[in-house]
Each structure stands twice: as structure tokens, then as C-alpha cells.
Design goal:
The chain is built from six helices and ten strands, in the order αααββββαβββαββαβ. With 215 residues, it is of the alpha+beta class. The chain has three domains: 38 residues, no CATH class; 100 residues, Outer membrane lipoprotein wza domain like (Outer membrane lipoprotein wza fold like), CATH 3.10.560.10; 69 residues, wza like domain (wza like fold), CATH 3.30.1950.10. The chain has a five-stranded mixed sheet with strand order 7-6-10-8-9, sandwiched between helices. The protein has a three-stranded antiparallel sheet with strand order 2-1-5, covered by helices on one side.
């Protein structure tokens, strides 16, 4: 076998030989490539709605009952994703949109409310994203609004024009006990080409690799 496929196979079989005596940027690039060898990289989710519109840990929500104001409450979503409501106890909030949470609460209070109305309002929301690699200010980015991959990179000071490989930005996501890697072509977005919108989730890691040649 020869060509690009053979080069990829050599990398997957014996990465340690490539890492021997290598610089830190080269080590990071090889590790990202090896991660791709171990687990096929899924295509980025194609969605026009940011996942961050769902409630998550740390969000503060106000729940009001127009016809039963004594039940009104303002709470922060706990680390386990739940809130505590009078009369019904713990309620799952993380993962639901405000509209969906309203419907869930109405079900729980169905036998206790004369008017089938409840309002859920997000008082404050913020979540961390971690950006590393070829950016000017790597580290944690805290946002109170939905972020795309490109927006997260710009929040980290922007990319290094001399070294960043924006065609293969990696998003590392931990969900359901598993780690998934997504490859996003940010260069295409910068060039105004039509691409699927990729919105980040809380605690996603965005890695901007350096331009790299195997030869």
C-alpha cells in the first residue's frame, strides 16, 4: 500500500516512533491524529438550533404560577440537573428547553392547579468552553449565550494566522459516559462557504491544530 492511506496506517500502528524527540506542538498533532485512528470521527451535527438553548447545570430559572403565586420560585439548576419544587419534590431541568420544562411541571401539578398555566424564565445562564492549540489566549471561555466553534476561537483571542490549521479543528465532547471527537472546517466558514452550524455544549474542548506535514 502506498500514498496517504499507507501514511495513516503507519501512524496508527507505531505513533511512538514519530513522537521520539518531537517538539510539543508535534506531539499534540500526533496525539489528535491517533485519537482519530482509535475512534472514527463523526460528522458535525447539522442543526440550526443551538444545543445551548437547553437548560444545564448552573442556570438560574424563575418558575411562576399566575394563579398560585405562593408556588413561585427562583432556583439554580443543581449539579445533578434537578431543581426542587413545592408539593412535587425534585424535577429534572437540565436537558429541557424552558418550554419543555413548563410542560413537565404542568403534568406534575395537573391535579393541583385550577389554571393550567406556568411560566419558566431563564434569569441567568453561563457555561464553560475550553479552547487550546493554535490560538492567542488558550484556556477557559465562559459564555452566557450559544457559541459556535468559530466564535469560541475568537473569544480565545483569535487564531494564530501563521500556524493554525482551521480546516481540521477538533471538538472533544464528553456525553453519556463516552468521549466523541468532531472535526469542523472553520476555514470554510471564514471563506463564506455554506456549512452546517456547529454549536458547542458546556465543557466542550476546542482544539485548533497547527499546520503540519508528515514529510
Amino acid at each position: 500500500m502506498s500514498g496517504p492511506a499507507a501514511n495513516r496506517n503507519r501512524l496508527c500502528v507505531a505513533p511512538s516512533r514519530l513522537l521520539r524527540g518531537a517538539s510539543l506542538p508535534l506531539v499534540l498533532a500526533v496525539l489528535v491524529a491517533v485519537m482519530g485512528c482509535q475512534t472514527p470521527t463523526p460528522s458535525p451535527p447539522s442543526t440550526g438550533q443551538p444545543d445551548a438553548f437547553s437548560l444545564h447545570e448552573g442556570d438560574v430559572v424563575k418558575i411562576s404560577f399566575p394563579d398560585a403565586p405562593t408556588l413561585d420560585t427562583t432556583q439554580q439548576v443543581r449539579r445533578d440537573g434537578k431543581i426542587e419544587l413545592s408539593l412535587v419534590g425534585e424535577v429534572q431541568a437540565a436537558g429541557y428547553s424552558p418550554d419543555q420544562l413548563e410542560k413537565e411541571i404542568l403534568k406534575l401539578y395537573a391535579s393541583q392547579l385550577l389554571s393550567k398555566q406556568v411560566n419558566v424564565t431563564v434569569v441567568s445562564s453561563s457555561f464553560p468552553i475550553f479552547v487550546s492549540g493554535s490560538v492567542l489566549r488558550p484556556g477557559k471561555v465562559v459564555s452566557d449565550r450559544p457559541l459556535t466553534v468559530l466564535q469560541a476561537i475568537m473569544e480565545a483571542g483569535g487564531f494564530d494566522h501563521a500556524t493554525a490549521n482551521l480546516k481540521a479543528v477538533v471538538v472533544i465532547r464528553h456525553e453519556n459516559g463516552q468521549t466523541r471527537n468532531y472535526t469542523v472546517n472553520v476555514q470554510a466558514e471564514l471563506e463564506g462557504k455554506s456549512t452546517a452550524t456547529f454549536y458547542l455544549k458546556p465543557s466542550d474542548v476546542v482544539y485548533v491544530p497547527e499546520k503540519f506535514s508528515w514529510f
